[in-house]
Amino acid sequence: MSRQFIERVGYKGIGSLEFKFNRGDGKFIIIEPTVGRTDWQEEIATLCGANIPLITYWAEVGHPVEETPGGAEKLHGAHRSSIGYRGSAASGARTLDGYFRFADPLPGIYYLG
After folding, report:
1. For the stretch 3-21, what's the b/e string if a residue is b when 16 or more beta carbons lie within 10 angstroms of its beta carbon?
2. 20-43 pLDDT tens trace
3. In Å, what is the CA distance from 57 to each residue of 61, 66, 75, 100, 112?
């Protein structure tokens, strides 16, 4: 649905669409478009194997956009889970904190500070 919308409006650049499911009519509705800036989606995308900042850089310097180099954790899915908020993840998905991980603690320390 996101791709169809982006193609129809001709949007180019970093952005995201947030949807909610309307149980009343059984349709998804856009509740929050984010354009021209990231909204932490680049973190979860990178963890799932699509390095959005690197792909954006490649596009801006005229480098062919390739698959993200190895090294990213390929996740079945992920769920943001930070202090003050805990939720369940989809079956089979690993749960990672959106800000803090022992392998890269500085963003979490900055966020909590």
Report:
1. eeeeeeeeeeebbbbeeee
2. 999 999 999 999 888 876 666 777
3. 6, 11, 23, 25, 29
| Amino acid sitting at position 23 | R
Q: What is the distance, to the nearest Å, from the Cα of residue 102 to the centroid of all Cα atoms in its chain?
A: 20
Q: How far apart are CA 10 and CA 26, in angstroms?
A: 27
In angstroms, rounded to a whole number, what is the distance separating the alpha carbons of residues 38 and 36? Answer: 7
Residue 62 to residue 32: CA distance in whole angstroms: 30
Rounded to two decimals, the pTM is 0.51
Q: What's phi and psi for 86, nearest 5 deg? A: -135, 135
| Tens digits of residue pLDDT in 77-109 | 555 556 555 556 556 666 667 677 788 888 778
Q: How many CB atoms lie within 10 A of CB 82?
A: 14
For residue 42, give both structure tokens: 């680049």
